[in-house]
Amino acid sequence: MTATSFPPMISGCFITLLIWAGCSTVVCLVNEKITAPPATPTGYFSTVTEVATCGNNSDTCGIYCRICDTHYHGPTMDCLSTLLQIQCITKFYDAMASLNSTEWCTWSNVGGLYSNLSLCTEEISDCLMIPWPNPLVEQTFVEIHSSHFKDCPSQELSDPPPVIVFALVMTPICLIPVMVSLVVLKTKNGDGRP
Question: What is the 3-state secondary structure (H, E, C) of 37-95?
Fold first, then answer.
């Protein structure tokens, strides 16, 4: 191999690698409405140059992918938003409505519902090959927190009662004159005795 043929060979391999890596990602389908070719029975396309539209071959993922293909021409954020609303958020709101609003702030009452919501959003995002968490899922959780958990006290971050704060502030302030007077008395007697 000569020195003049080495750089073109490396750049050819590098370009081939870039093309292969670029064709195997799904990021391009997230915000675009691209119609992908039909999937193989495994849920992925048969060649490396085609992009997968469905996360796996489970029945649930197949249903989600068919809905997206039929109504949105592929897995888009609009399709994800609709599926999250139908499959996850509505169920969470219904379950929260069955609880008394005073029970919303007790984690043992809502922890399971919250975990189910999180798992549901993750499952649908994975099925559509959309990264999780994503801005849509984050916005969903922000809205849920602002509508259901905004009035819940946070014991770890709350201030102590005003009486305690006053005592903690005033104690050092009152001790300063006492300490100064003790120092003055001790230094007045040269040997340190009263």
Answer: CCCCCCCCCCCCCCCCCCCCCCHHHHHHHHHHHHHHCCCCHHHHHHHHHHHHHHHHHHH
Same domain, 121 and 190: no
Same domain, 134 and 164: no
Alpha-carbon distance of 192 to 194, in angstroms, equals 7
pLDDT in tens, 39-89: 444 443 333 333 345 777 777 888 888 888 889 888 889 999 999 999 999
The answer as to whether 1 is a domain residue is no
DSSP SS3 for 132: coil
CA-to-CA separations, 152 to 25, 70, 89, 127, in angstroms, rounded: 42, 42, 20, 34
pTM for this model (two decimals)? 0.52
- Can you tell me the distance from the alpha carbon of 132 to that of 135, in angstroms, rounded to the nearest whole number? 9
Residue 143 lies in a domain: yes
What's the DSSP call for residue 161? Answer: P
Q: Does one domain contain both 187 and 101? A: no
Domain that holds residue 181: 159-194
Residue-wise pLDDT for 18-27, tens only, equals 344 443 333 3
CB neighbours of 110 closer than 8 A, spacing ≥ 6?
96, 99, 103, 104, 148
CA distances in angstroms from 146 to 17, 141, 177, listed in the order given: 46, 9, 49
| Under 8 Å between Cβ of 52 and 69 | no
Interatomic CA distance for residues 185 and 190, integer angstroms: 10
